[in-house]
Amino acid sequence: MLPLFHLLGSFVVIAVLFPFYNLWSFVFLVGSFFIDIDHYIWYVIKERDFGLRRAYLYNRDKRNKGKDHLHIFHVWEFWVLFFLLAFFNTFFALVFLGLMFHLIMDFIDLYFHMDCIRNRAFSFFMWLKRH
Length: 131
Known about the structure:
Blueprint: H1 3-21, H2 28-32, H3 37-47, H4 52-60, H5 62-65, H6 76-85, H7 90-111, H8 114-117, H9 124-130
Helix pairs in contact: 3-4, 6-7
């Protein structure tokens, strides 16, 4: 999904959260938008290049969509960690809510691009097993 859609959707939810959490509601962005930093991390590791624009174009390129990329913040082990941390701290609770919002948007996008779903790593350990 395009980062712009994640960002716009996040600001809608932040507007709903703001009366309850004030400025803390912007922590939601960490989970809902900034977790896509793992796409950039993957690009830097694979291509040995720090160009942000080139990383964006690489991840948008249809030829790379079917490849088995590991986006470490998009695996269930990471989700469980933040789910558990959410019980102890408001910061982690808001990050977890943002993470779940981000993943719901990703799953909706994957529904329309089913050809890519089998190549997506949903578990770090399953990804390791494939490699």
